[in-house]
Each structure stands twice: as C-alpha cells, then as structure tokens.
Fold this protein.
Amino acid sequence: MMRDKVFYFIFFLLLLALSRLIPHPPNFTPILATSIMAPLLMKDRIYGIALPILAVFVSDIIIGFHSYQLAVYFSLLFISLITPMKKNYLYLGAMAIGGSLWFYLITNFAVWFMSSMYPKTIEGILSCYVLALPFLTSTLVSTLLFTFLITWSSEILSSLNKNFNKLLNIN
C-alpha cells in the first residue's frame, strides 16, 4: 500500500527532480541509483519502478523532452525491474555498474538510431559510443556513489518514513 511510503515518494521525487534541474556535471545524478534502491527501500517493486520514472518525467516537463526519451524511461524501468529486493552489497554494487552500462548502451543506441548526428553504419554507432564515454564515466561514478549513500542512509530514511507516517497518522 502506498500510504506508508508517502515520505519516500515525496522525498525522492523532489530530490531526483531537483538533481536534474540544478547545475551538475553531465549524467551525474542519483537517478540510476534510485532506480536500483527505490524498490528495496519502498519494499514494493511497482512503486519503486514508478518513482524514478515519474521524477524524470516531472523534470522533463521543465527542461524539455527529446526524441529518445522513451529509451531513458525504458532503461530506468528495466533497472528497477531486475534490482535485488534484499540488501546485498555485492549485488547492489553489481547493479550500479551493470545499470550504468545498460543505460549507456540503450540510450546511446537510441541517440545513434533516432538522430542525424551519426551515420547509420557500424562506424556511426561505434563513433556514438566512443564519444559518449565521458558520460559513461560520470554515470558510473555517480551511480556507485549514490547507491552507496542511499544504502548507507537507508536506516535513517526508514526512521524518517516511520516518523512521517506517525505525523500523518498513517498505519
């Protein structure tokens, strides 16, 4: 039930949307880390999937949409769908690396396929992936960092969620 997860939803929705709106290095946001951690924190895969996608959608309303937006949403959906539902540091670290690589492969394939920036050849796709390597670095570093920070702060977040629920007389 969503009622006991209102704090998580509001907190992460605001955090994620703001992380995309304030100046930051390219691809250095907690979006992928939250795609990994939200199902685990919320103890609900559906709400955990919806949260990062909704946050990106809300911020996209402000910053604008692009032709490969569905590839971004699909990447987030897939990452949240396969993330472990138990706190296992090895799996979470592997998800941070694997999720970053998945996001890089899917979104850059969409850039190559849907834009006119690259020829539709093997050389074109390779060029697209090579030129996107700096973004992959930022994505990897930020996803590992934010996955660690969310994991480390999960007990604090859980306590805040319980206090928020008491304040609102939920449960």
